[in-house]
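User: Predict structure, ligand magnesium ion.
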Amino acid sequence: RAKTLGRGRYEIFNATMRERVRLIQQLESDLQRALERNEFQVYYQPIVNLSNREINGFEALVRWNHPERGLVSPGDFIPIAEETGLITLLDWKVMRDACQQVYRWNENLKNRPPFVLSVNLSARQFIQANLVEQITKILNDTGLERQYLKIEMTETALLENPEGVAESISQLKSLGIGLSLDDFGTGYSSLSYLHRFSVDNLKIDLSFVRSMNSEPQSFEIVRTMIVLAHALNIYAIAEGIETPDQLNTLQHLNCPLGQGYYFSPPLPAENIKTLF
Ligand code: C2E
Ligand code: MG
Ligand code: MG
Ligand code: MG
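Assistant: Predicted complex:
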């Protein structure tokens, strides 16, 4: 796996300063071109009900199908897309494609509860004046009903401009769109945010899930997050479940939802259909 990833990578962090500047500039112009040429593809990872293993919904995760480098992971280009502002166009494109796709799945599967779609939005998006208009337009254009859309945001987004962000979020909430706090416990979390922003889901970062069965402290953190979520009447979602042991632990702790390679990696839309 390291080998196949290695080939395509923009090795920015191992480069010398001058090389680094050049690589970042190259990446920037590549990203611009990639948007024009439609090289971005949405992958979907199931979010599963841990008690009955039914698929509750999907998280949309962007991939870059680079003509020479192959599949590039978001970790390798999202930071530059954020710095240059290209993230705005990219996030809207991902949301539009994913809403359209999940709308279609829901139309074709009338005999089960509709899937819920989770979309990641960069911190930057929350201080845009037209955030709510953009999202409303995408929902109207694609037909997905607002109660089936959840927005994932990280704590960073809240920290940068809590007042401006609060306004956008309360508008989204009043439309009936859900809110998930992503990577919970890795940033400068303030527990008061959970309440203040009426968060619907708390996503337990995969670093805690990975170590909870070997490190008692991580276990306690995971346990406490799940108790906290229950107490606040919100859903805990465990990220990065890879083993049956991890699933077992989370089930014992009454964690309602989870995602991870144990169930399925993120997959292109055409491969998702075989899961349901
Ligand atoms: P995230 O939102 O926390 O997404 C979860 C990450 O965990 C994804 O990485 C997913 O592929 C990975 N993952 C899922 N299950 C497992 C597992 O069992 N084990 C391990 N080790 N990893 C697992 P990915 O797809 O590389 O995305 C990384 C981050 O990039 C995301 O973290 C999110 O912050 C960001 N991102 C992805 N797509 C978008 C997007 O469309 N817009 C924005 N703004 N950010 C995005
Ligand atoms: Mg996420
Ligand atoms: Mg996360
Ligand atoms: Mg993350």
